Structures are given as structure tokens and as C-alpha cells.
Amino acid sequence: MAVYKRYKGKRISSSHPRYADARWWIYKRLKGKTIHQSIPEAKTKQEAELAERQIIKASFDHSYKVADTTTTLAAFIEQKYRSYVEQNNVNKGAKDLYIRLLLEHFKKQTLGSISPQDCRDCRSKLQNRQNKRKKGSELSPASINRIMSTLSKIFSLACEEGILDRNPMQYVKALPEPPPRRRLLNEKQKEDLWTELEKDALLYRLIVLAVNLPLRRGQLMAITEDFIDFEHEQVLVIGSKGRPPRLVPLNATATKVLRAMIADKQLPFPIKDFRKRWYTA
Length: 281
Description:
With 281 residues, the protein is of the alpha+beta class.
């Protein structure tokens, strides 16, 4: 077995005075490739040899396309994908919803057993699912594409980890989406809108800020008093859509609204369900 102990970058024997404190390492050549890594969890030679066998088996399975028959979709999401979401996504709530919908379909199915047709079946099931926010309607093609895109990313991460050798979602086409709406309010509609918004002071202030600041809704809702620099007339906004946090200048209207909100202790926005409040306004 090619396991040994290493201390301060040097291979040592059992006669070394710091042998007990040294770390176990693996050195093995397999099909022209070198496996050379530490095993910090191993405390004994038997544990190091067991780890060596598992690493060699994993390398063998990957080289000869032996499928992983034990890792389920649910387990991989908990072990790997949630960490990815924490490190790379702002809207974690949406990802949690997508994960829940995917697991409702795949349940305890293993990653290696999921075929492109299984993915199409999942998409078809989502097309027939009722939209809880809009009663009497189904999920939009854009919403379904976002959910399936999440599934594709999970498979891509599994390929990176060596669990899969291909992404089954690469054979599944996205649903066609309708072109974006281009509807502008006329003067009468604008007047009616502002009149209605004045009945809800908090929603009115949110819309005024939305008009005067180039921010997404989630960025607006995340603004706190600590993020605002009135002296230099700018506000720090969180990252969104892969972009890092940035400073955005404030005009006189936005400054006036933010000062009023701080005085009324309305930052961050105490709104839990913006959509419901907007539709009922």
C-alpha cells in the first residue's frame, strides 16, 4: 500500500520523534496519472489504506464510466448545491422553491438514473401545475425554464464532482417564451396610479425610489440605513444577477424619501409579500 506519513514536507518513518503528529498521505500512479494527496481524517495506517482504496475505486469508476448508483439528487443538493447557492446567489428564497418543486418529482431518485426523458417528464408536470400566486393560471414558460435551469446547474456540478459523465439536461430544450410586453401608461393612467399609491404611504415611497434609482426590487428591499451615505449622496446596493455590490448616486427626490423613511423607521422595508400588496393597492 502506497501510504506514508509526512511531516513538514518530508516523508518520515516510524522512528521519527514527531511520527504521531504527522499526517498520512497517499502516493499512487494509476493509468499514467499520479494520485498524491493528504488524508487529514486518518488516524491509523488502516484508515489511511481504506481511504486509499476508496480514492482508487472512485478514480477507476470515473475512468471506466462506472455510474454512481448511490448518490441521490436530494443528497447531492444538500451536500454540494446548497453551498454553491450560498456562495453565488442572492435570491436564495427562489432557489429553495425550485429545489422543493424538483424534489417533489424526483423524490429519492439517484443522479445516475435520471435520464433526459425524466427531465422532460418533470418539465411536463410543471406545465400542468397551478400557479398559487395567480389562481386559475399555470406556471409561465419563463418560470419553468428557470426551474429547469436550476436542475441543469445541479447536473453540471455533479459532472464537475465526477459523479456524472454527462448532463442529461443538455438534450432538453427550453420552452419558447413570449416576447416581453412593451406597454406604456398614458397620462390618465399615470395620474390614477399615483392617486391610488398615495393611499399606501409605504408602497408609494417604494415606487418613488424605484423610479429614481436604477435598482432591482430585491436591491431596493435590502436597503438599510447603514448603506446610505447622505454626505456624498450615494447608497451601497447588494449584488444582483452575478454583479458585485456597487455604489449608486442619489438624486434629491430619492434622498428626501430615504430621510423620511429613516425618520419613520421604515428601513429595511417592512414588506413581506410585495406582490400581494401591489395587486391589492
